[in-house]
Amino acid sequence: MAGRENRERRSEARGGEEAAWARELLDHLRPAERDVRRVVAWLADAVQGAASLQDGSGALLAGTRVAVDENLVADLVTGRIASVSWEGQRHHLRLVRVERPQPGAAAVLAVSRPAPFDRRASEVVLRTAQVLELLLRARETTAAGHRLRRAASDLRLAILQLLMVEDTVSARRVAAGLWPGLLDTDTACVYVLEGDAAARDRLAEACLDATEGQALVVRCPAVDEHVIVVTPGESAAEALRSLIDRYPGTFLGGSVRQSLARTATAYGQAVSALAVAHFRPEKTAVYAERTHPERLMDPAVLRAWTALLLRPLDTLAHHTRAELLATTRLGLEFTAVSAAKILGVSRNTVRARMERVEGLLCTDFAHLPVRAVAHLALNTQIGLSEAPAEGSGPAPASARLIDLLAGTAVRAWACDLLGRLDTDARDLRRTLRGWIAAGGNAERAAHALGMHAQTVRDHVRSAEPVLERRLLAAGSDLYEVVLAHLAVGDLEPPVLDRTKPGYPDSPVHG
Fold first, then answer.
1. Under 8 Å between Cβ of 219 and 227
2. DSSP letter at 441?
3. SS3 content of the chain, % helix, strand, coil (to 5)
4. Residue 338, helix vs strand vs coil
5. What angle do CA 258, 259, 265 make, to 5 degrees?
6. φ, ψ for residue 315, nearest 5 deg
7. pLDDT tens digit string along 268-314?
8. Measured between alpha carbons, how far is 356 from 371 in angstroms, rounded to an integer?
9. Of 23, 276, 322, 362, which has the fewest beta carbons less than 10 angstroms from its beta carbon?
10. Distance (Å, rounded) from C-alpha 150 to C-alpha 156?
11. How many angstroms separate the CA atoms of 476 and 493, rounded?
């Protein structure tokens, strides 16, 4: 009786010991504990030896390298044998094949210990190999999921970049294969969400879920905190607003509805609205459809003037012309660096394209009035295909910038806009005029005005809420204010017919 009780107690102790190591091994399958290297390290400790995991080429995947015969490794990797044991006087080795997700890419688990492999040690090695197979399969599945999501994200960015350069045909073609019907529309709105850069991936996924795949969701390539959403439907706007409460510190700016070809314009509107959202308790804003100067100009004169101004570009191949126009439009709306990130090209490429346009137009974008006038022409150019038949307006040769700015409606708008600054005793209007004349450079403006550069910046910043426009950042808001100064005669009209002999495309080159 005593002998049987002793055997039972030994059996219970052994069973408890086995249960303990099994529980420890299974703990490595928990989501927070899944690490192949930790499992191999645990195995070495459990068998009181050394353990390694290597691939067929001998590359160490985890653990401490164990010397093994290359022929045995080859037999295990190819599947000719599943496991092998070798015993010496002071060295006992166990090799086990470990399946991996990729065909023909099996690994080998090698375990060495000074003592022979007893039943417990052999069982631990076998079960560890099975756990490693599960972890490797899970890791590959996770990696494949990451690759798939990354590829989808890259495609969405590519579609946005095509829309930004007005290539709606190619954008629809790319989208149709993966997201049928997404761009089966002539118009869309653009929204920009701003949040914590570290949590942007979660915010982007939330946007995808909220819009149910009916919107183009892109992680902004230029601003780490931004997620861009292009949505054809109306329901997405409310869905995006619902994210503001769920993600504290998130803001939303939206554009008005624009044609797909004007996605870049809509994006600029959304960014402008985002700046307003920061000052609203609801943390959201939609671009205000205020009166823009081009809407007060004679449409026929505006179209004729635009065609005349951009005529030097008509000698280029169609795709080259479209590329230059789209890049310059973005470069004027944002910075060259941001435009490069949005388009997926280098900043030098953006600058080179803009310099080529400068050469063709015989002008210099370093001057704010020139940038404002070029911006007006480039945005008008988008709608030239919708221009009425010949004869409805003046001939192109008679269209001049002075004609556009001399209209009664334009001058009244400009006087009203700039007149808002007259009530400030600091003479913000004088400072703003000098700052624009200095190309938006506070130091040069301060020297010309006889004040400190920081005072100039403070005055310009103070003018922003009065005019309800962003001035310290390049873009439509600033250019409208520049046009207002031109319309009332506070600034000299820009010269757009200077020769730039250094540019091969210049009409007077050579």
1. yes
2. -
3. 60, 10, 30
4. helix
5. 55
6. -75, -10
7. 889 888 887 887 888 988 887 666 788 888 888 888 899 888 999 98
8. 15
9. 23
10. 10
11. 18
Q: How far apart are CA 125 and CA 96, in angstroms?
A: 8
Region of 339 (left: φ > 0; alpha: ψ -120 to 50; beta: rest) is: alpha
HSE of 111 in the Cβ direction (CA atoms, 13 Å)? 31
Instruction: Give residue-wise pLDDT tens across range 203-236.
Output: 999 998 888 878 899 999 888 899 999 998 777 8
DSSP string, 245-272: HHSTT-EEEEPPPEEGGGHHHHHHHHHH
Token digits of residue 106: 């099996």
> Long-range contacts for 213-216 (Cβ within 8 Å, ≥24 apart)?
213/179, 213/182, 214/182, 215/182, 216/156, 216/159, 216/160, 216/175, 216/179, 216/182, 216/183
Determine the Cα–Cα distance for residues 204 and 193; give it in Å rounded to an integer: 9
The length of the chain, given as a count of residues: 510
* Tokens (6 digits) for 263: 């996605």
pTM of the predicted model, to two decimals?
0.64
Three-class secondary structure assignment of 380-414: HHCCHHHCCCCCCCCCHHHCCHHHHHCCHHHHHHH
Copy the structure tokens of residue 49: 């030896």
